Amino acid sequence: AQSVTQLDSQVPVFEEAPVELRCNYSSSVSVYLFWYVQYPNQGLQLLLKYLSGSTLVESINGFEAEFNKSQTSFHLRKPSVHISDTAEYFCAVSFNSGNTPLVFGKGTRLSVIA
Amino acid sequence: GAVVSQHPSRVICKSGTSVKIECRSLDFQATTMFWYRQFPKQSLMLMATSNEGSKATYEQGVEKDKFLINHASLTLSTLTVTSAHPEDSSFYICSAPTYRVANYGYTFGSGTRLTVV
Questions:
Q1: In terms of CA atoms, which chain B residue is nearest residue A43?
Q2: CB contact (8 A) between residue B110 and residue A43
């Protein structure tokens, strides 16, 4: 079965500390991988995505994620977090083709503590 | 580019009434629209997939007679919650794939917070 797992439901971290949000997937077909961020009562904003090529992808606000095919993972990292990074983060996977819906993990609540 | 506009952003309705949520693709033709529901502090769950000009495909457990989806044009998909009840209160989000018009990906509406009282 195809699925996405975010093991950590909540991650508290102090400001300026590094953080890693974990995402693993299960699939028998090729995948495209995404990370989205959601602020309270808002829609989803794309952070970054992996389609092909370099396995390390970066966002404009300092986040990065690395696609690891052997471990079927796409963990999200940031070397130094800010208060404004407090939000819900969703890992999502597209299986097969461009016209199939995204499958979302359960989300990880990142809380940055001053 | 590839923007989906979703309205209303918030709606409060009385139990037993119907509510329509619209998602419009502003600068591209969305032949497919995915509809998700998100309960508080939970993930997005796919409800149905609509394709322009054909009947929507519903996920298991989603009542098609309760959640009516119409995709009559290439720029508009609607979700109507019929005879709404408090348990239908949720955050509804639409999403369209953008591989036809941009790099592979998906664009999302800003969501609709439905509260049934």
A1: B110
A2: yes
